[in-house]
Amino acid sequence: MDTYKILEIKQSVFADNNKQADLLRGELKKSGTFLLNLMSSPGAGKTQTVLRTIEALKDEMKIGIMEADIDSDVDAHAVAATGTKVIQLHTGGMCHLDADMTRQGLSGLETQGVDFVILENVGNLVCPAEFDTGASKNAMILSVPEGDDKPLKYPLMFSIVDVLLINKIDALGSGLFNFNPEAVRERVKKLNPNIRVIPISAKTGEGINEWADWIRAEVKKWNGK
């Protein structure tokens, strides 16, 4: 029997999403819960990265996962198999989450005592970048097969995230993909000088320690430690 709930998310009634996002961040800060909004295009490796993150941090933090999708519960099923607290959010056709939707998800997840929550946002490089979810920090994944031109095509996404994970670096030497990591780094730094860029392979685990160290440091700062 599956051990997670499925919550049908309703569209926010709040006109001022940014105000609601700031209120939610304040509540999360007060409760000591660090919320990471993880974004990417479909197929970039969000869920596998989430699983690697759980593996790296499960003995140090109480973790909760919110899997957002238009439909299906495939991702929540994969996370639930690890024993991690998870909820599947169905957006009813919407291609993003906003602050009120995120609040509904946190309520359904029941985050009392949870240190670290990952919101795996809907796979999309456009809509999720436009809506503040109230997260403590924003992260995104760009995978090698997507090509190194994505910062040029989707500048808003790269400009609003705190950290960029370049995933599937195990494929760099294959010669199959047009991807120059240094070109990506240069392009995203022009858009967002303070962005942290971490190359990883969610398949092999390469780079996950650096990613986990970034999370550890941010959670400590969030809690004033």
Summarize the structure.
With 225 residues, the protein is of the alpha/beta class. The chain has 9 helices and 8 strands. Strand 7, helix 8 (181-191) and strand 8 (196-199) form a beta-alpha-beta unit.
Overall geometry = globular
Helix-strand string: EHEHEHEHEHEHHEHEH
Quantity of strands, as a count = 8
Question: If strands are numbered along the chain, what order do they take across the biggest sheet?
Answer: 1-4-3-5-2-6-7-8
Low-confidence stretches: none
Notes on the protein architecture:
This protein is of the alpha/beta class. 38% of the residues lie in helices and 20% in strands. The protein contains nine helices and eight strands. It has helices at 17-31, 46-57, 74-80, 99-109, 127-130, 150-153, 155-160, 181-191, 208-222, and strands at 5-8, 34-40, 63-69, 85-90, 116-120, 137-143, 163-167, 196-199. An eight-stranded parallel β-sheet has the order 1-4-3-5-2-6-7-8, sandwiched between helices. Helix 2 packs across helix 9. It is globular.
Could you give the topology of this structure?
Elements (H helix, E strand, L loop, with lengths): L4 E4 L8 H15 L2 E7 L5 H12 L5 E7 L4 H7 L4 E6 L8 H11 L6 E5 L6 H4 L6 E7 L6 H4 L1 H6 L2 E5 L13 H11 L4 E4 L8 H15 L3
Parallel strand pairs: 1-4, 2-5, 2-6, 3-4, 3-5, 6-7, 7-8
Helix pairs in contact: 2-9
